[in-house]
Structures are given as C-alpha cells and as structure tokens.
Amino acid sequence: MDNQNYKTHVKVDPLYHYVLLILLVTTLVVSILNLVRSFNAGENILQSILLLLMVVCIIIVAILVRLNPLKNQDRTIRAEENLRHFVLTGKLLDSNLSKGQIIALRFAGEQEFPTLCERAVKEKLSPDDIKKAIVSWKADHHRI
Predict the structure, then answer these.
(1) Is residue 7 domain-resident?
(2) What are phi and psi of 111, to 5 degrees?
(3) Each residue's pLDDT tens digit, 28-53
(4) Cα separation, 2 vs 112, whole angstroms
(5) What's the number of domains the chain is made of?
(6) Which 8-state DSSP code applies to residue 96?
(7) Mean pLDDT value across the chain
(8) Could you say which of 21, 37, 85, 138 is the most buried, measured as most Cβ atoms within 10 Å of its Cβ?
(9) Dihedral of CA 52/57/58/60: which sign?
(10) Buried b / exposed e across 107-130, counting CB within 10 Å, b at 16+?
(11) Is residue 140 part of a domain?
C-alpha cells in the first residue's frame, strides 16, 4: 500500500459516497416532484406520500448504516490508543483529550505519540492541527 500522510489519509468509498448518495438525492427529488404533481392533479396522493416516506426511510437507514460502524470504530480507536499510550508511558491517556483528538493521534508514530498527546492537551490542538504536526506518520488503511 502507498505511504499515508496528511494529504493522502482521507479515504472515500466511491460506491457509498458517490453512487449511493447521488441515487438517494435523485430519488428524493423525484419523489417530491411526484408528490407535487399528484397534489396538482388530485390523483394518487396516498401513493405519492407513501413513496416519499419510503425514500425518507431509506435515507435514514443509509445514514445509520454509515454512522453506527463509525461510532464503533471511534470506540475501538480510543481503546487502542489508550492501550498504546499505556504501553509507551505506563499511564492512560489524559481524560481531557477529545474523541477527535484521539482519533487524530492514531496517525502519530511511536516516538512522537506521547509528546504529541501532551501537546494536544496543553495547546488544545484541533484534530486537524494534530495531523499536521505529525512528523512520523503511522498509516491507518482500515478506516473509511
């Protein structure tokens, strides 16, 4: 796999981020247009409302299918980084670190990880600032 760095660490799933989202937005727009036409014609109003409700339900499911695994990944990353910090320093991560900071810190190499953790708390670094401060990048090819 290619080396990862700040500029290349973002990963996109084309099937989800482009194909599915475009199809969902298109379906939503078409179902709204269908509902408007049904109201104007005074026909098939119930079917048009049901179609719109089904599209909204599918959109909600698509959002949850994306968000729930990401929440689980976030919890896993927090646990992994807490363990890594404990192995390197003998102490757990500072409780003042936010979830976003911890997720950003996972890219830091072993040498700079403890120092960067302390710096993130003291300077209240944003996740983006943490990623920019990393010198020795540790790749994460599993998160989408």
Answers:
(1) no
(2) -65, -40
(3) 999 999 999 999 999 999 999 999 99
(4) 22
(5) 1
(6) T
(7) 91
(8) 85
(9) positive
(10) bbeeebbbebbeebbeeebebeeb
(11) no
- The answer for residues whose C-beta is within 8 angstroms of residue 144's C-beta and 6 or more apart is 11, 12, 13, 16
Give domain status of residue 128, yes or no: yes
Listed as own residue / partner, the contacts of 20-29 with beta carbons closer than 8 Å and 24 or more positions apart are 20/62, 21/62, 24/55, 24/58, 24/59, 24/62, 27/55, 27/58, 28/55, 28/56, 28/59
> DSSP state, 135?
S
Residue in the block written with tokens 């078409």? 30
CA 114 to chain CA centroid, Å, is: 24
Please state the φ and ψ torsions of residue 106, each to the nearest 5 degrees: -60, -20
Residue 102 to residue 131: CA distance in whole angstroms: 11
Q: Is residue 61 part of a domain?
A: yes
Q: For residue 86, give the amino acid letter.
A: F
Which pLDDT score, from 0 to 100, does residue 2 have?
60
118: tokens are 């302390």
